[in-house]
Amino acid sequence: MKFSITSRAALIMLIAASLACQTILPNESLPPPSASATSTSEFSDATVATISIENADMLFYDVSGSTASEIVDSIHASRPTDPYHSNQAFDALTTWRITWTWSGYGQAECDLETAVVDYENEVEFPRWNPPADASPELIQSWNRYIENLALHEKGHVDKTVKYYQEVETAIQNATCLTADAAAQQVLEALNAENESYDLETDHGRTQGVQFP
């Protein structure tokens, strides 16, 4: 975990490790969180599922191959690395960031009612365009894999949305001199929950993240 504070806002970033997991995004606000999180298009034996995760920006890296072993090799050659876990490589990587500020931030006199809290999630995720000779069985195996991979990442994204709301509550219940520390304490809890989630799911393996 790493965080830094500027004169106008506090921010914390986490990269959570998973076969599936969490990089730094532009400082742009996302729309308010919605109830759903992961959607997958309907697909036939010859169609690759389309993956999206609600409340997250998807960054796809392309992999290739017409056999399972070729695809695995391509994933291993292209998948992102996690600088917060010794640059370990994972099939997917989710990065979250939560920022906050208010009128009079960092001063003894301020207006916490003006507090603005934003979050961002970015998920790096594999994308495979099957060649003409790819078997329906291979495509089905791939679809199962990416659906389970997305399910694991959805867990990380959902935690960001949950704790981002708790940050706002913590700020409103604090004072001008304690609000920043209160917000960071919430993020410490988010950090711990993400770590526990990866341990409990073995970075997605218990959720079916395996290919082929």
Give, in order, the helices and strands.
EEEEEHEEEEHH
Mean pLDDT over all positions: 83
**Strand proportion:** 25-35%
Question: Which residues form runs of ≥5 with pLDDT under 50?
Answer: 1-43
End-to-end distance = 32 Å
Estimate the helix proportion, in percent: 25-40%
| Biggest β-sheet description | 5 strands, mixed
Gyration radius (Cα, Å) is 19 Å
Spatial strand order of the main sheet: 1-2-8-9-5
Number of domains: 1
Classify the secondary structure makeup into a structural class: alpha+beta
Contiguous helical run count: 3
Describe the 3D structure.
38% of the residues are buried. A hairpin with a 4-residue loop joins β1 and β2 (10-16). The protein starts with a strand and ends in an 11-residue tail after the last helix. It has 212 residues and is of the alpha+beta class. The chain contains 3 helices and 9 strands. The strands form 3 sheets. The chain has a 5-stranded mixed sheet. Strands 3-4 form a two-stranded antiparallel sheet. It has helices at 68-78, 136-172, 179-201; strands at residues 2-5, 10-16, 38-40, 51-53, 57-63, 81-82, 88-89, 93-103, 111-128. The protein has one domain. α2 packs antiparallel against α3 (179-201). The chain is elongated, with a radius of gyration of 19 Å.
